[in-house]
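Example (one chain per record):
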Amino acid sequence: MKTGWLGLSTLLVTTLSLGCDSKSALPETADDAPTWYRDIKPIVAQRCAGCHTAQGIGPFTLSSYEEAQSKAAALADSVQSRRMPPWMPSADCQQFSPDRRLSQHEIDQFVTWAKNGAPLGNPADDKAVPPQKVSLDNPSATLDWGTAYTPNSAKNDDYHCFLIDPKLKKDQDLIAYEFAPDQRHEVHHALIFSAPWSDAQAKDDATPGLGWPCSGSSDVKSAELVATWVPGETYTEFPTGTGIRLGAGRALVAQLHYNTRHGVAPDLSKLKPVSYTHLDVYKRQIQRRLSARSRNRWICWVNRDSTLYSSPLRFRLASGKVPINSSECVESGSRSSKRCRR
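Predicted structure:
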């Protein structure tokens, strides 16, 4: 699965103290010591700016040297402790994509740069970061829920669901999508579900006003997660020949998490799906069954000879379409069981 990624979510500026392991720090010579122009700016542009930008979800911007220099110690502490970029999966369980962790070399560059006083460096080293494609070229439609929604300012976090009519007259295969947040400073994440139209409509009708309050899911019976978005993400394309079946006559439900600490504004975000009537090469149909949920664990069983692709909230798993956050795997019988902390 290919996912565009420009940055990461909120930086936790809680500790300004800087600890540095002398064994891992880079040499502090004039030639090797990292500088903003040559070493740090490209990392920030590619891995941080998607959230730490004007009107972004991050609590401050990192669009200039002055902004980064003033927070150099906090940045170094956050990356050295691996709080930033936020990435919950353990490397001991599975290979996840896109892996948003910084390399140890990149972490060492941040740490040494901060320790040395965050030097600016030579402007001649300021090389343009290659532009990254941020939008799909050929969306099949642009969908929304019709009317802008203003989050509840009395709540720090407002979870709200909206009914979307994709107007599918026949089954379609979702092969790519782009979620375009309208108010980036308040949209924390989005989950898109496919659900029976009658159940979704009944939920919408039962709640006065636009949409309905929800938390963690769509709160609609038999809804299935089909797409997700988090800050910094741009678009998602499933591997060639694969897709997620969207049934004719089914509804889409968008669950949005709004964070109101930067103020509220009317939001009308967009979903831009790409679908084919029938995939020319439809690989083994995704088979999945959520067999049990106990306490804080999801237990998911998949056929060993199946190839599964995921679209969970925080990352994408190359071999399972399940919402997971961490790293415990076991094998059992003729099926592969991936047991992971939620």
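Caption: Residues 5-29, 280-342 have pLDDT under 50 and may be disordered.
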